[in-house]
Design a protein that fits this description.
The complex is a heterodimer of chains A (244) and B (229). Chain A has six helices and seven strands, in the order H-H-E-H-E-E-E-E-H-E-E-H-H. Chain A has 244 residues and is of the alpha+beta class. In chain A, a hairpin with a 4-residue loop joins strand 3 and strand 4. In chain A, helix 1 packs across helix 2. Chain A is globular, with a radius of gyration of 22 Å. Chain B is globular and about 65 Å long. With 229 residues, chain B is mainly α. Chain B is 59% helix and 2% strand. Classes of the chains: A alpha+beta (244), B mainly alpha (229). Chains A and B meet through helix 1 of A and helix 4 and helix 5 of B.
């Protein structure tokens, strides 16, 4: 057979593509259950770490069921949609593309040693791809108890540093409402002149050098996602004066 | 090759080839050479980028080594089996497809069975595709040699690459974080006496410098690498 003929070349390429595609498709679908189980447990692990409970992935499920007392799916008017399972049915990346009245936003309520925490999932855009995370609010629904961030493809050593503990720790103790009760979120700021982050009332944390766009993405993600929860927060905490 | 001594007239008119033992001297050299005399990293200076990126700790370096051994062994075998069928004009594409599929397989398996490691290696697993050593061995060796030899060559070169990776990671993790494979090895007493981890070791420039020192030591010790001029 003439191996240099066009027909042979095309035939070889076509056969190769078919074989490769079926092998890969078979592998991907047979490993899918194991993979999504890992992702599910990691989500539980991340949610728990915002309220200061560190666990490995295997132990996450037990602790999650122990500490997370409520998993709510909120409509955009702050009411609860009981027909939706907040943990498994709601994917923020899909929700954000829907019309406002169809959107459902998950809220996890945790109870640890008699104090309540409100854990809000976040999702936004970094420099290259999606960034996401969880932010836990204290019982006053204002002070941040803890935050976790993750990303798909930020630059290693720069934007990817948002997943480091030292960066996430900067958010602890910051407040999302200003003194007049307006929702301001937390800005990742290059000009806050507070590198040790001792000022917990400035609504700012120190940015990472070389990761400006990722940092801005984090700021935007926090304020944009928190907006969705305003009606719920207003309706459930009468002691806070909201001014939005 | 000499004609085998026998009384019978040879029925076929070609020289009967002696079967080479599986681990003949030549075959052993295929495995051994890339570890030292012809190391892909220190002698051929290939695959440097990933050597800098994933040598901060031993664990990812070990996993990367195993992944590259699996990818190179398998893709060398596949390309060697197909070597007489691959159309010459699209051979680079075929090699690329073979390597890419192997890498995706490794990535999927890691995601299912070693999720944390796969997160840590993230893009670097995908970047095995672009590792010049892999394509280089396919083009230079597997396309022209038998299956078993190609397998040895792939595994040997991947091992030579991994050996350097692990060596660099050993020094970087030890001096940079005071740990080995995640376990603390430098006693607390030493820290109390004022010893500090060298933060620079965690950054990629020190990987290059460590690699440079290794090349220096290797060239000083290995007579075959001494240049004559």
């Amino acid at each position: 057979m003439n191996r240099d003929s066009n027909g042979y070349t095309f035939g070889f390429a076509a056969a190769m593509v078919l074989v490769v595609a079926s092998v890969l498709a078979f592998t991907a679908s047979s490993l899918k259950d194991l993979q999504s189980e890992n992702v599910r447990k990691e989500k539980m692990q991340n949610i728990l770490s915002t309220i200061g409970i560190e666990t490995d992935r295997e132990g996450a499920e037990v602790l999650f069921n122990q500490y997370i007392t409520e998993q709510l799916a909120l409509k955009n008017d702050g009411s609860i949609d009981a027909s939706v399972d907040a943990f498994s049915d709601v994917k923020l990346s899909f929700e954000l593309k829907k019309d406002a009245q169809d959107q459902r936003f998950p809220l996890y309520v945790a109870s640890v040693d008699a104090s309540q925490y409100y854990i809000i999932p976040l999702r936004g855009s970094g420099l290259w791809d999606a960034i996401w995370g969880y932010i836990a609010l204290d019982n006053d629904r204002n002070t941040i108890k803890g935050a976790v961030f993750d990303h798909k493809g930020e630059t290693a050593g720069l934007g990817a540093e948002i997943t480091q503990q030292w960066f996430m720790d900067r958010f602890v103790g910051e407040k999302i409402f200003d003194t007049s009760g307006k929702l301001v979120g937390i800005s990742v700021s290059k000009t806050n002149n507070d590198p040790n982050d001792t000022d917990k009332d400035d609504h700012e944390v120190d940015a990472i050098s070389g990761a400006t766009i990722t940092g801005d993405g984090v700021s935007d993600m926090i304020i944009e996602r928190l907006q969705h929860y305003l009606p719920y927060l207003k309706a459930t905490s009468a002691d806070l004066a909201y001014n939005n | 090759m000499s004609q085998p001594k026998s009384n019978k007239k040879p029925a076929i008119f070609f020289v009967a080839k002696e079967r080479e033992p599986l681990f003949s001297k030549k075959n052993r050299a295929l495995l051994k050479d890339p570890l030292d005399d012809n190391n892909p990293i220190t002698v051929q200076v290939l695959g440097i980028c990933s050597a800098l990126a994933i040598t901060v700790q031993l664990k990812p370096a070990v996993v990367m080594t195993l992944s590259v051994i699996a990818v190179m062994g398998a893709s060398n075998v596949i390309v060697s089996i197909l070597r007489n069928a691959i159309p010459n004009r699209i051979r680079i594409i075929v090699q690329l497809v073979v390597v890419a599929s192997m890498v995706i397989l490794v990535d999927q398996v890691l995601r299912a069975f070693a999720y944390d490691v796969s997160k840590q290696l993230s893009i670097f697993i995908g970047l095995i595709i672009t590792n010049c050593i892999v394509m280089g061995r396919l083009e230079a060796f597997a396309l022209g040699n038998g299956v078993w030899k190609s397998f040895l060559d792939g595994v040997g070169n991947a091992a030579g690459y991994g050996f350097m990776l692990i060596l660099v990671a050993f020094f970087r993790e030890l001096l940079g974080s005071g740990k080995l494979y995640g376990y603390q090895v430098i006693p607390d007493a030493l820290y109390e006496m004022g010893y500090e981890n060298n933060g620079l070791m965690l950054l990629s420039p020190m990987a290059l410098i460590t690699l440079g020192l290794i090349i220096w030591v290797q060239r000083a010790r290995n007579r075959k690498l001494i240049e004559k001029n």
